[in-house]
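Re: iron/sulfur cluster structure - here you go.
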Amino acid sequence: MTAYNFETSTPNTWCPGCGNFPLLNAVKAVLQEPGEGETPTPPENLVLVAGIGCHGKIVDYLNINSFYSIHGRVLPVATGIKLANPDLEVIGFAGDGDAYGEGLEHLIYAAKRNIDITVIIHNNRVYSLTTGQFSPTSPLGFPGRSTPAGSPEPPLNPLELLLASGATFLARGFSSQPEQMKQIIREAINHRGFALVDILQVCVTFFNLHQYYAERVYTVEDHDPADYFQALNKIREWDYGASPSGTSPGGASPGKANPGGEEKERIPLGILYKKEAPTFARRLSPAGGGNREEATRESRTAAKERQALIEKILAGSK
Ligand code: SF4
């Protein structure tokens, strides 16, 4: 079968060395070359949605139906497209400021509802299009344009928040590991339900963490992504602290001694959580897409898992 040609003639304006390049190539490869035994999604059934930021230009470089949304609104637009035409494969692209800042409430509700879309976060941990202000995942002490004395806020761990919100697929990749990015993105697109891939995307101009990540990332092994508590532990291994000097400005990672930065944090990559659950469309229209009793039963199981987690946390705090 001939691969679709998604090339465009739009001049690329990303900085040389930007982590957006390998991410673009990974997405293009996944959409052009389906996995073994899979048939490619016809281009007319693909829709891309981008937010505002350096990442947003990705839709200019892919010859696929796309929608430039406004800042923080990738999720409502992607959700609307999917609900209007469930046959479409909807992929959203957002930056960390876009998704974890301005659009955070939309992200939480998309995860909670288990909307059947894929969201890829270009997490460069800085507002790069506006030349380097701190973002929700910038480390404590980040000396950005708006915080020359250092950001006074600790970073958000978005994967922990989304796990608690009900996301059914959570993964992390690194822009300097293209093969793994491809594998993760392929699985995210194939997942039926809300899938989020947090890509540690290097911004060479305003927050170059390439070396920092290269020394710390590892691929999860012997990990059961269907196990909620294993996923939670993996997600908590790294709290998004970082400094190019090798220490976490916020101090030690949770549960890990890091006096003076002698012990480096470890950053797990791969599929951290994956669970089958009824999608929002199926719950909206069980007769058309599934069985209401089954959906209710699965919903109760998820509620029990959350309750068990709350009880475990409360027991540990006594
Ligand atoms: S400013 Fe950063 S994120 Fe934006 S294009 Fe340049 S390197 Fe990439």
